[in-house]
Design brief:
Oligomer: single chain
Helix content: 10-25%
Order of helices and strands: EEEHEEEEEEEEHHEHEHEEEEEEEEEEEE
Number of strands: 25
Distance between the termini: 11 Å
Length: 435
C-alpha cells in the first residue's frame, strides 16, 4: 500500500496492466458525501475506456475507513431521470474512449465517513490500494463534475467482518461499535444486522458457546462506560442467539474502557480519534462443540506452476487490521497458470485456502487470520476485502501484485507467516506499523 499526501498514484496489480490512476484525491462534498476523483491514464498503444478498465456494474470500487471498520461502495443510482441508466454515482464520461498516453478525469461518489476520519484506503478495480487523505469541502483539488450536484440518501456502507481462528480454540471476531450502534446507544443499527449475518456465516458448527465482550473508548466516566459496554454486549448476544439458536450457550460482559487495543491519545497528550474508534468495539468468541469435519488450510489447493515465484512486499498494521501485499512473478518465457478468484465461496474462515488466497498465521501455525468480508447494500461480485480481479494466468515475464485485509493480531505480535493458496511454504514477515 502506498501512502502519500499529494500526487498519489495507484498502479495496476499486474505489470501487464498499463492503466493507472493518477493524482487520487478524496474531497468532502457537503456533510454527507465524499468525492473520489482521479485521472485515469492509458499507458497502452491502443485506445481504451474506463468501462473496459473496471466494470462499474460490479461495484468494484471500495473505500475503507479502517479504524471504524467500515467499507463504502459507490452510491447507488440517482432518482433524477437525467441520471438514470448509470452504474451508480459515477462520472458521465465513464464510457468515453481514452487514447494512447492520454488521461481522463473520473469521479465516484460515496457516503462520507465521520468528520473525525482523516484518511481512507481506496481500492480501485484492478489497481493496488492506496491510502488517501481526506480534504475539506472547500479544496480546490476537486474538479467540477455534474455528478457532484446530484444526491442519494442510501449510504451504501457496511461493516468489515474478519475471523481469527485458533486451532482447538475459539474463533474470534472484532466488531467495531461505530458500525453496530449510534452514539450513546445500545440499539443495533441496520448495518449491525449485516455484520452479525456475516459473522454467523463463518461459524463452523451448530452448537457451542458464544462469549460477547463490550468495550468503549476513554471518554466519559468509568461508570458510564461500564454500563454502556454491558448494554452493548447484551444487545449483540441477544441478536446472535436469535441467529444461532438454542444449541449455543451465550454470555455477555462489559469491560468499559479498561481493555484498550489502541492509544486513546497521542504521545503529546492530544486526542487520537482513530485510536479511540478501535477501542469502541464488541469482541465475540465462538467455540463450537460439534464443528464440521476439520478442513485445515490447504496450501496446495489449486497448486501453481513450479516456476512461479511468490514474494512478500509488506505486512502493515493499520487501523486495527493487517494490510498484506505480495507479488507472484513469472520469470519464464511462456504464460503460467495461476488461479485467483476473489468471488470464491469457500468461507475461508472455516477451512482451506482457495487458489491465490492469503491467510495470516502465527509463528506456531495454530492461529489463522482470514480475509475480511466487506458488508454493504449494493450487489457485489467479490466476497473479500482483497484483490478484486480474477486471474488464471500470468504472462511471461510479468508480475502480479495481490493484497488483502485480515484482522490484526495482538499488539505484541511482531512476526507472522503469510500462507498463499497454491504455494506450500509460508513466508515469514515482520509487521511494520502503518499510519
Amino acid at each position: 500500500m502506498v501512502a502519500q499526501t499529494d500526487g498519489l498514484v495507484a498502479k495496476g496489480e499486474s505489470s501487464a496492466e498499463l492503466a493507472e490512476a493518477r493524482n487520487i484525491r478524496l474531497v468532502r462534498n457537503g456533510t454527507d458525501e465524499v468525492a473520489l476523483q482521479f485521472e485515469l491514464h492509458n499507458g497502452a498503444t491502443v485506445s481504451t475506456s474506463p468501462s473496459q478498465w473496471s466494470d462499474p456494474t460490479t461495484r468494484r470500487f471500495l473505500l475503507f475507513d479502517l479504524p471504524r471498520g467500515t467499507s463504502y461502495q459507490v452510491l447507488g443510482e440517482s432518482s433524477d431521470p437525467g441520471f438514470k441508466g448509470r452504474w451508480g454515482r459515477l462520472s458521465s464520461n465513464w464510457m468515453n474512449p481514452v487514447g494512447p498516453d492520454q488521461s481522463i478525469t473520473l469521479t465516484a461518489m460515496f457516503a462520507a465517513p465521520p468528520a473525525e476520519a482523516s484518511t481512507m484506503v481506496a481500492a480501485l478495480g484492478d489497481l493496488v490500494p492506496v491510502q488517501v487523505p481526506i480534504q475539506a469541502a472547500s479544496s480546490p483539488a476537486l474538479k467540477s463534475d455534474p455528478i457532484l450536484f446530484d444526491h442519494h440518501r442510501d449510504p451504501n456502507a457496511g461493516p468489515l467482518v474478519c475471523a481469527a481462528a485458533k486451532q482447538g480454540g475459539p474463533t474470534q471476531f472484532r466488531l467495531p461499535a461505530d458500525v453496530l450502534f449510534a452514539f450513546d446507544s445500545a440499539t443495533l443499527s441496520s448495518a449491525a444486522q449485516i455484520a452479525l449475518d456475516l459473522l454467523v456465516k463463518q461459524v463452523n458448527g451448530t452448537s457451542g458457546t458464544v462469549t460477547v465482550q463490550g468495550n468503549t473508548d476513554a471518554i466519559g466516566t468509568d461508570a458510564y462506560n461500564q454500563t454502556l459496554s454491558e448494554q452493548r454486549a447484551a444487545s449483540v448476544a441477544d441478536a446472535l442467539k436469535q441467529r444461532l439458536g438454542g444449541n449455543f450457550a451465550f454470555s455477555s460482559v462489559g469491560f468499559g474502557k479498561t481493555k484498550p487495543v489502541a492509544p486513546n491519545t497521542n504521545p503529546d497528550g492530544s486526542d487520537n480519534p482513530d485510536g479511540r474508534a478501535q477501542n469502541r468495539r464488541v469482541d465475540v468468541e465462538v467455540t463450537t462443540t460439534n464443528p464440521a469435519p476439520p478442513s485445515p488450510p490447504d496450501p496446495n489447493s489449486g497448486a501453481v506452476q513450479a516456476d512461479l515465484r511468490a514474494s512478500l512486499v509488506s505486512v502493515r498494521h493499520t487501523g486495527g487490521y493487517l494490510m498484506t501485499t505480495l507479488q507472484v512473478s513469472n520469470p519464464g518465457n511462456a504464460p503460467a497458470a495461476f488461479g485467483y478468484n476473489s468471488t470464491a465461496t469457500g468461507e475461508s474462515a472455516k477451512g482451506g485456502l482457495f487458489p491465490g488466497e492469503l491467510a495470516v498465521l502465527d509463528t506456531t501455525g495454530k492461529s489463522r487470520g482470514s480475509l475480511c468480508i466487506p458488508g454493504g447494500t449494493a450487489n457485489t461480485y467479490f466476497s473479500y476485502a482483497a484483490s478484486m480481479n480474477s486471474y488464471t494466468t500470468i504472462p511471461a515475464g510479468a508480475t502480479l501484485t495481490l493484497w488483502g485485509l485480515t484482522p490484526a493480531p495482538t499488539p505484541d505480535t511482531t512476526t507472522v507467516n503469510i500462507q498463499i493458496g497454491g504455494f506450500p511454504q509460508p513466508i515469514p514477515s515482520q509487521i511494520t506499523p502503518g499510519p
